[in-house]
């Protein structure tokens, strides 16, 4: 304490003296407590490298996503598949690319790093953006940004040049691989002369209206390229036994369109047709479309609703909810031909979309003439209508899609002027443009359209498409009711007969004007001079229209009639209170 070897140097001690002092005063220190060795700090973790991006040369295409579902198109199958977020597992990703691809791009000690692969896929899909199901295109002919595309299931013909499904030219649409349509390669296109022969055969069947053959030929021409059309007209063929319906369906249309059409019949439902078509643009030829029983009537109406949606080229999608909670989308772009003894066209919207073609019973001809006619027609059908001819017809129409689209625009304009109706112009003008394109390889001029239209009589077709509001009014006026007379007897009369009695333009020994007015009032109808006033809410009106499409909107529909106006609040005899009403011009009295 208080001394060190430096003091010994100062005092001049020898090393021995200093060592003695150290020995005399030194004592052992208490041992220090044992301290465990400190663990070395863990080595700094190496940063996780980012997952590699999916290269553009990947064996599949990332199409995009929608509501937690991701869409892909593998090159191996060519079909669009969907995977939910939780379904990006190893087994499912192997449907996009083989195992070696994933192990090379996303290696791990145990094979492929599936978590990293899923992460990279999600990033790539986010860049691709929202996917819309209406961009999927199935088999058939399409118009794609100025190019004609024929999708044959396993290959594409783009402006006549064959390309693989997996190596299709850049497009916002996705052509997925489907069952192939067998069309031989290196076929010659159908020439104008043979196209004219198809028109001739269609016109030689015994039609109630001679122009029907021209319309049928136009439908045959356009049906194979229905996906490329802006408006898709439909046809309903009616015929009795022995009138030639089988020859038209089986040996004429059926042979020419066999490779590019769907042929349901009998009890086929709308759901079957919709699920068979999905995204295909192929025509539907439906035989035996009868609606004798109530279930049949509803089934046919559902099919007509499908055809109604298919008419327009809009981007509308038919959506159905799946049992698993996943929505299903269907893009219907087909032209329909239905065949039966009588039509089931009730809605005005359906009547304006279907050309009604009626075959005459050949019994009006003497038997020798009938036999000679069918012998000659049968020989020409056998010679002309073959599978090869159908393929040549398809290739001709696909090659002429740009010309046909221009011709359709011209014919629609001309027909709208001649028919004085844009809807009829769309319907019949499009069919006539198809017939024109069968025999002409150039675009039609407005003079060509006028000439073809004026060469035929169209009075019967002008009568077919009655306005919806006129049909609603006629349904009301032709409805039969039971009315009590002065002597207590009940008589059956139409609403129109009661209207005439209430107006004083007719007389009856059984029913007085007062009785007619009272019954009409209880129904919700009132006669005021040359006007008919109809209640907007009377239960009697709803009973008359029960089961029709006008039951809940008849006041709005009737308000579209020429001369119709809102009548304000009106009191009707036999009804408690007042109701708003619509005032109509008396039929035949003018607006």
Structure description:
With 591 residues, the protein is α+β, with helices and mostly antiparallel strands. Helices cover 39% and strands 17% of the residues. The chain has 22 helices and 23 strands. The strands form 8 sheets. A 4-stranded antiparallel β-sheet has the order 7-8-9-10, with no helix packed on it. It has a 4-stranded parallel β-sheet with strand order 13-16-12-17, with helices on one face. A 4-stranded antiparallel β-sheet has the order 20-21-23-22. α6 crosses α7.
N-to-C span: 134 Å
* Fraction of residues in H or I helices: 25-40%
Briefly note the structural class of the backbone. Answer: alpha+beta
Q: Main beta sheet: strand number and arrangement?
A: 4 strands, antiparallel
Broad shape: elongated
Are there runs of 5+ residues with pLDDT below 50, and where? Answer: none
How large is the radius of gyration? Answer: 41 Å
- The overall pLDDT, averaged over residues, is 87
Looking at how many chains there are and whether they match, the oligomeric state comes to single chain
Strand ordering within the main sheet: 7-8-9-10
What is the number of helical segments per DSSP (H or I, 4+ residues)?
22
Number of strands: 23
Strand composition percent = 15-25%
Short description:
By secondary structure, the chain is α+β, with helices and mostly antiparallel strands. The protein is built from 22 helices and 23 strands.
Question: Secondary structure elements and their pairing?
Answer:
Layout: H1 5-10, H2 15-25, E1 60-66, E2 69-74, E3 81-84, H3 90-93, H4 99-105, E4 107-108, E5 111-112, H5 114-128, E6 136-137, E7 140-144, E8 147-151, E9 155-158, E10 161-164, E11 174-175, H6 192-203, H7 212-222, E12 234-238, H8 245-256, H9 270-277, E13 284-286, H10 294-311, E14 318-321, E15 327-330, E16 336-340, H11 348-351, E17 354-358, H12 367-384, H13 387-399, H14 401-419, H15 422-439, H16 446-454, H17 459-464, H18 468-477, E18 480-484, E19 490-494, H19 495-503, H20 513-523, E20 525-528, E21 531-535, H21 539-544, H22 554-558, E22 565-571, E23 578-585
